[in-house]
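Pinned message: reference record for Iron compound ABC transporter, periplasmic iron compound-binding protein
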Amino acid sequence: MGVWSFAQAFPVILEHAQGETTLNSQPARVAVFDLAALDFLMALEIEVAGVAGASWPDYLEHYSDTGLVSVGTLFEPDFDALAELEPDLIIIGRRTQPAYEALSDIAPTLDLTLENGDFVTGFRRNLALLGEAFAVQSKAEALDAAFVDALAQLQSQADGSALTLFTVNNNIIINAQSDRYGMLHELTGLPSVAPPAESEVAVRPEPGSPEALALAEQREARLQVALAAEPEWLFILDRGAATGGEGQAEQTLAEHPAVAASAAWQAGRVFYLDPPTWYVATGGYLGTMDTLEQLQLRFAP
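Predicted structure (tokens):
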């Protein structure tokens, strides 16, 4: 079944990250626990009744003071507030996944979490899913067409290879294309020079512990290998600036000898992702389209 093969009437069965959910009618009271989903709904001009509190990207800030019901945080739903709101649809993402079963007991729940390494497919699937859920398929299809056009334009301009770096607390962490924040490689078509990680870190070690020191050594070794491959572009996500803190990415990178000596850094071929958009609202329609436009300008001859 293609992305745009929609059922035309309710009830509809919607496939999402945690299975299938049936909607018996078009939702009218929606509670949202994912800022990327909220971004999609804004693009589709769908009103919501309740939102989880968060560190808001500027373009979503108005949702914090519009009189909407606060239904908790992205990590901790307020079940009393939800009971009072009586939503007929709840939408969640990665941060709220552990509460999926409990939320499903309250109302039909959709999980729009994107799989690592499959950003474009998941992005388009989520747009189609929301178009079907709210019976605005034609509007969703128009947005999808605009995204596909912007993606093709960007990839026609991009050339070479790239490296995505995530900075936090003066640390530099590589994100390969298959990692959580490696989607810029898929969007631009620029392959990542990052070597694959030996294994995923399931539990973050205590700072200063032997495990933490060993992890830092592994990350530094990966970074050295990646920079030796001489990427043409560096894509940067500053975690410190994502939730209202002070951004330190430029200073952290400039103080790293291998990064500062790289051809990409020396030539100024460095693209900084908007931290709140890409850390908190990862994969929203408006945020992604804005980034594609910015990249087109950077890649323009």
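Pinned by admin. Summary line: The longest helix spans residues 137-157.
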